[in-house]
């Protein structure tokens, strides 16, 4: 891994860039990487197309036959790379799409994650949003299809929702361009200004909470160092998700290697 | 059990926590999900207000019709025919305009070649072979694809396609395949390569493979012109409007045949090479939504245009050059093309075709669109790709070369059933990652095409019908 | 006094009931759970395909279609809600 002399400080602060390349994500210059997640049929592609226009290209995720669309847009003189994750109902199941979405959210270190929901079926859609909120605190919830909700005479109290969930809630009708400015603004605030949020964590039943608490001490023994949220790892363990355990082991090792390699080179350059 | 090093701390903790996982009666994973939904249900109750009581609206009424016992299948058939008709009728004028434009440019090219006094053979390979084929492919392929794919995307965004999968799932289940296979078939009408990539929507690897191997039995846009041209031998009409209706009708019939073959082959594969029970299918039926015309169409058209142009340049042009060379290089007093056709003739006759037809199909491996022009070139012995001004003239040429009803019928069947084009085979390889299955994807249609045509031909000969 | 739960496929068009337990296994179980079909969920039968199978159910404001052999492994309250 060769670094140009000016690069090293950035790379050290941002080992995520190297991690992202394993996902086939290549940023140009100072680009913020934004992940786009959501259930199928919520108009996620509409949001993606509305934000990126023709500045997009589709390929495959490395080593998988699953579509990967990436596109960029600029807002207030900053460049954003939007990564369209496969549509998934949850991050808990084991299909290839769900693994890709989960792995990228956990280890791809996006600067923000937009979870797109369908305003007409919030109950079902919130499942995914809550799971993402358990992994990362850089979540923006985009409630799309509000024009459809209006037709069905549904009204949503977005303020209440935002208070409860603790993350920015942006109502949109991406088809008509409604709410897109606010969405870009929220992304800017989160990714560039790095405004902190405190996402609501799901209140589990007693049995689950007990099991999680039994696991946490053992997890804290592992030197996780920002690899993954301990509670999320506890949930994966309770779920017998061996594939996730294998993946996290790989990434923890890769991250250690990256940091060590960068420190070596940084050390060389300062001599 | 696991790929991890036994000393791996993560593996260790995974094994350590086995007792906690098993301590609960209901699997903890279930409890986790149940808890999440209990929360979202309460939250939704608080923040979502429904101003009216839930009433069935007109969209639900339409849905009842679409999945109904009486109207379900006829409506699908009608829609299929309508899509074909729009594609064929809509592509007519643009195809002609493109053809005129590109062939006019050919004359300019010829003048340039004459100006620099280039040798005749160079002109032949580059202009008469390469450029002419490229022009033909663009003129023939681009307009239908620019209509079909946006139409398909329209139906997709509308939310209609899951209803098709819903209606047909039962039949696919009987063939031990997945209902979503009909969606890959629909995509295959536009382009078989795209149909194969679309098989990603099928979760089960076994069923995905079945969908991939049988996709070729639905004719793609590139094969429409061949099928239309030949079917018009049977039925011609003076009026352009009814002509396109007849063409759409013939195509629909052939497509139904292709679909029947798809079911038969899927069923056979499930019994032999790809044994297994049908996996579960869970299908979401999204509400009907007004599709956003405009951006989607624009992108669809651009994508398909790029596809056709790339295919024309990379695949068709070299094929055209090769064909010209074969047609104009002589062994003795007969061209290589004619000689090879002669060698193939006995096999071809056995299946109701002739050597030139088989030759045309073989040369059409890179791109199915060039089968008819290559065939005409052989018959007219002009050594160059020819355009024909009217279908009536086409009929004359074919009859003059010994075509009977059997020839026409079997050629259409062969066009429907034969091996996939090179782009499709490449997609198969990319999607399956397996040379073995790509080979199967080649050999199964080929074997079926030969067998079916053989049987029909032999029976016809035996009964003295041809 | 409780009556035994019955398979989901016994639900007739227009009827609704709530889920008691799931007998589905493997990947299908995960998929069904993630779609919001958990114990306690209300399901309404809203349509059947021309051949009678698969069957469309209303679940938390979304429509999910299941094959009857899969629906057979979901058990609902034999007393129907109004």
Structural overview:
The complex is a heterotrimer of chains A (271), B (466) and C (82). Chain A has 271 residues and is α/β, with parallel strands linked by helices. Chain A is built from 11 helices and 8 strands. A 7-stranded mixed beta sheet of chain A has the order 2-3-4-1-5-6-8, sandwiched between helices. The longest helix of chain A is centred in the C-terminal third of the chain and has 29 residues, at 242-270. Mean pLDDT of chain A is 84; it is low at 1-13. With 466 residues, chain B is mainly α. Helices cover 73% and strands 2% of the residues of chain B. Chain B has a two-stranded antiparallel ribbon with strand order 3-4. In chain B, helix 6 runs antiparallel to helix 8. The mean pLDDT of chain C is 89. By secondary structure, chain C is α+β, with helices and mostly antiparallel strands. Helices cover 16% and strands 35% of the residues of chain C. A 6-stranded antiparallel beta sheet of chain C has the order 1-6-2-3-4-5. The longest helix of chain C has 9 residues, at 26-34. Classes of the chains: A alpha/beta (271), B mainly alpha (466), C alpha+beta (82). Chains in contact: A-B, A-C, B-C. Chains A and B meet through helix 3, helix 5, strand 7, helix 7 and helix 9 of A and helix 1, helix 2, helix 3, strand 1 and helix 13 of B. Strand 2 of chain B pairs antiparallel with strand 5 (62-66) of chain C.
Set down the secondary structure blueprint.
The complex is a heterotrimer of chains A (271), B (466) and C (82).
Chain A: H1 8-13, H2 16-21, E1 31-38, H3 44-52, E2 56-60, E3 67-75, E4 78-84, H4 96-107, E5 112-118, H5 122-135, E6 139-144, H6 146-151, E7 154-156, H7 158-165, E8 169-171, H8 180-191, H9 206-221, H10 230-238, H11 242-270
Helix pairs in contact in A: 9-10
Chain B: H1 9-16, H2 18-23, H3 28-47, E1 48-50, H4 58-66, H5 72-115, H6 120-158, H7 161-174, H8 181-190, H9 192-197, H10 205-214, H11 224-234, H12 240-271, E2 282-284, H13 295-328, E3 330-331, E4 334-335, H14 336-350, H15 355-363, H16 371-380, H17 391-400, H18 405-417, H19 422-432, H20 435-462
Antiparallel strand pairs in B: 3-4
Chain C: E1 6-7, E2 16-22, H1 26-34, E3 42-48, E4 55-59, E5 62-66, H2 68-71, E6 74-76
Antiparallel strand pairs in C: 1-6, 2-3, 2-6, 3-4, 4-5
